[in-house]
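F.,

This is the one I mentioned.
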């Protein structure tokens, strides 16, 4: 049976493919929609797409039972990742080629890594940093090939990546609600805000275009976000983001096939650098003596993980599940990632 780290890596890769497809699809949709309108519809679609999964998990809750930090994290993720980031991206996409925007999205890796090291107690050893450098080299290679296709567009996309880097860390730290629930609230609130602004600023939206935007949102921003959050909670935001940074490769390939934009050998070379970066990242081994204080929280987990050895009353729970649970205080040493239980200084 696949171990949790490998399965989480697969989740991140699938999330990348879905998110990468959003760029060329959004370029097509922008011919009939304003940037705020499309941003709103994409995130409303995300909320609709994840609602069944959230309901199957026991309902759609706000983190009212959790402490205030979780509420602040969710609010910050909604504003940065759901409201501001998508609009900035679509404003850049309106004035630049989809392939160029796909390549610039590699800046999200650098933004996530920098924010992680500076503010979120994330750590990377030498192999991990080598993986980040290899991935960033692939981004630079492709970005240099984009030429002068719009400095303004590049700045807009870079700012969007900073917003999503912050969002990545905040959502990776939320407990008390499931990834599907946090995605639902992000999509519903952010989508409603941007769609309202778009309707005030823009014209009437054709029904067929609305349906297409909702479908793209359900897949590229709904299913993709849930998969990414699930991965980040196990691997840590920076490591999950290295895998997720392959999304621009999918975007470039689909831009070529759907929009007729150019695809050349340089794209293959960049893809090889991405693969090398992911491989180097998983060669890293991080282990040291560390202390866990007694804690009680709620998040998705499995019982073959070091920190989840508690018993359940009754059978029938899925292998990966979520419920309120406690952890006794413990000092030990084992290989670990910067997940929900290992955001510590050392």
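My design for it:
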């Amino acid at each position: 049976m696949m171990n949790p780290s490998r399965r989480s890596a697969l989740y991140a890769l699938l999330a990348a493919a879905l998110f990468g497809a959003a760029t060329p699809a959004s370029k097509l949709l922008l011919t009939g929609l304003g940037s705020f309108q499309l941003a709103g519809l994409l995130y409303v679609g995300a909320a609709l797409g994840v609602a069944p999964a959230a309901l199957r998990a026991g309902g759609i809750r706000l983190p009212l039972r959790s402490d205030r930090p979780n509420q602040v994290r969710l609010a910050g993720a909604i504003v940065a990742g759901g409201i501001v980031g998508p609009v900035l991206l679509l404003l850049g996409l309106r004035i630049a080629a989809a392939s160029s925007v796909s390549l610039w999205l590699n800046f999200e890796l650098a933004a996530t890594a920098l924010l992680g090291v500076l503010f979120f107690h994330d750590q990377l050893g030498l192999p991990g940093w080598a993986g980040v450098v290899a991935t960033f080299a692939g981004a630079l290679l492709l970005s240099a090939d984009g030429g002068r296709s719009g400095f303004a567009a590049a700045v807009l996309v870079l700012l969007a990546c900073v917003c999503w880097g912050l969002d990545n860390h905040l959502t990776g730290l939320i407990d008390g609600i499931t990834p599907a629930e946090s995605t639902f609230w992000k999509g519903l609130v952010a989508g409603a805000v941007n769609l309202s602004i778009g309707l005030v600023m823009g014209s009437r939206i054709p029904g067929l275009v609305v349906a297409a935007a909702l479908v793209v949102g359900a897949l590229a921003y709904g299913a993709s976000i849930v998969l990414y959050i699930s991965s980040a909670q196990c691997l840590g935001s920076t490591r999950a983001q290295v895998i997720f940074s392959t999304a621009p490769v999918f975007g470039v390939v689909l831009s070529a096939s759907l929009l007729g934009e150019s695809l050349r050998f340089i794209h293959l070379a960049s893809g090889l650098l991405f693969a090398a970066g992911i491989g180097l990242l998983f060669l890293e081994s991080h282990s040291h003596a560390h202390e866990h204080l007694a804690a009680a929280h709620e998040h998705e987990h499995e019982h073959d993980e070091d920190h989840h050895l508690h018993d359940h009353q009754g059978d029938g729970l899925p292998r990966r599940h979520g419920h309120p649970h406690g952890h006794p205080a413990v000092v030990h040493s084992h290989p670990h990632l910067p997940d929900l239980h290992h955001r510590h200084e050392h």
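Residues 4-287 form one domain.

Talk soon.
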